[in-house]
Amino acid sequence: MDIIPQIIVSGLAAGGVYGLIALGFVLIYKATSILNLATGEFMTLGAFVCLTAMTQLAAPFYIAFLVTLAFAALLGIVIERIILRPLIGEPIISVIMVTIGLGSILKGLTHMIWSPDYRSFPKIFPPQPLDLGFAIVPSGLLWGFVSAVVCTALFTVIFRFTRTGLAMRATASNQQAALSMGISVKRVFALSWIFAAMAASIGGVIIGNISGISIHLGNIGLKVLSVIILGGLDSIIGAIIGGFIIGILENFAGVFLDAFFGGGVKEVVPFVVLVVILMIRPYGIFGKALIERV
């Protein structure tokens, strides 16, 4: 079997999950112009809640998954209402710094409640890999990719074809104009945080099923930052395409460069891409260039 198709297929599968997590960044940024750097901790909390519901409460996966979504929605509401809403009108850098502090708090709470021990999810998906003839997709990546695609499609439909999505897009375009049309900007902000927390939690559950979880699972959020910078901070399709690109580049680096450099290149590649894209096209592939007239 040729190794190149295998690298690409595996990269696409991993990239689909990255794209779902990146969607959490994009949804908040489009509606509020805030870059939520606590997304990784949302992932971690969602994964631990789902695992706890399955192991401690003996709930079947679909019940645990619904509990996780409800928890994520509640988390999004509480954070937006208590922490972020009082910061409306404050400088963007101040709000971003608050999300960094929020991430540290959530990580500390996760450490206190669940300890730093590594945990594995019970087997949920069928173990058989998918044989495409030219490549084999492991079961975890296969079902993770399918789940990510379904969830991403659902969020995209909501954003593009519903009244809620229309309100979110109007708010993202011009908050003052949205207010003049009777749109509740505060409600849109709350919904953005709810959807973002849900997307991140789903990503955490998917990754947890593939490779297990620990309190350091949120570090993937920093990697996904390169995905949204590459695709464009305000572009849903950019989040997906960026995820695919980063997933494929990671796999190529892991196969061809790790052995040459003694390892570690796969983990560095997303951040190299982040630096390069900021130098060449800081608004990303599908992002909108902002032009200010003075």
From TrEMBL:
One of its GO terms (molecular function) is transmembrane transporter activity. It is found in: Cell membrane. It comes from the Bacteria. One of its GO terms (cellular component) is plasma membrane. Belongs to the binding-protein-dependent transport system permease family. LivHM subfamily. The chain crosses the membrane at residues 6-27, 61-79, 91-114, 134-159, 188-207, 268-291. Keywords: Amino-acid transport, Cell membrane, Membrane, Transmembrane, Transmembrane helix, Transport. The lineage of its organism: Bacteria, Pseudomonadati, Thermodesulfobacteriota, Desulfomonilia, Desulfomonilales. The keyword Protease does not apply. GO terms for biological process: amino acid transport. Its main location: membrane. This is Branched-chain amino acid ABC transporter permease. It is a multi-pass membrane protein. It comes from Desulfomonile tiedjei. It holds the Pfam family BPD_transp_2.
